[in-house]
Amino acid sequence: MQHLDVRVIEQALAWAREGETLWLCTVLATYGSSPRAPGSLLVVHRDGRHVGSLSGGCVEDDFLARLAEGEFARPVTTLRYGEERADGTGITLPCGGILDVLIERVVPDADSLVHLDVVLATLKGQRPLARRVDLVNGTRHFVEDDGIGPRVVLEAESGAAQIRMTPAARLVIAGISPVSEACAQFARGLGFEVFVCDPREEALAGFHVEGVEVRPELPSAFIAAGHCHAATAIVALTHDPRIDDLAMIEAVRTPAFYIGVMGSWRTSQARAERLQRSGGLSERDIARLHMPIGLDLGSKTPAEIALSVMADILRVQRGKARDAL
């Protein structure tokens, strides 16, 4: 699955390389219900061609009509949709929410090409960066980013927006089990790229989840090969230490934002001691491991356990402390 944001920036780069001016639109904030989350992207050519989306269509239609009339000539503009304007006009969103949109007019010069190239590399997981855009004059630069927390942060004092250019969220599932299958289904529904790794032929034969890439290899080998970026969660769900332990030893060497392994408190304690003794993990490495994995929901069935796992992954991804839930 190609992340939509990647397609937006690839198209922006293609138009810029052809010498075309383009408009890059970003959802800055939403209030109430909204069809697209903060950070969502849309790129528009002056002739109306576009890739990406900001809403279900009503916002895009209004923007395209106003662009055709010559608006948005400034380097940067911010618009609010969902409220009536001072002149009595405005777009009411079907969902009843409010949407703030950043519109950047991007001219096809060398600086813009470099900027878009870096954005694309970031979206593909090659660099952990965020864009910082001045909402008054349109100047922009990159800042280091840890990948955790809100995708867009508005800085009231400086009049700037910091926009995380995160790659598509990825879930690596180490080993196949009933919990693995349920977890893969939940993750696909949440928009994750999902990889399931297991070298056992009998386990592979019984696993079928649409849209999931199955790799017939040890999870530790897949992880060690460099397939995990900062927007990756790694979970081991088999109860087989030959699979789970090796996966954890490699996982802590990656920038993955979430690493977890299934097991009871007693099993987890024994695993921690084993990983330190035989796997060479430090106390800091052990502290990165979520074990027992997931939120404590009293889960019993595979689906309930998978739900608790994905809920905990989302909690960490959004920068929420457990006691803030």
Automatic annotation (TrEMBL):
InterPro entries: MoCofactor_Util/Proc, NAD(P)-bd_dom_sf, XdhC_CoxI, XdhC_Rossmann_dom. Residues 171-313 form the XdhC Rossmann domain. The lineage of its organism: Bacteria, Pseudomonadati, Pseudomonadota, Gammaproteobacteria, Oceanospirillales. Residues 15-69 form the XdhC- CoxI domain. This is Xanthine dehydrogenase accessory factor. Pfam families: XdhC_C, XdhC_CoxI. It comes from Halomonas cupida.
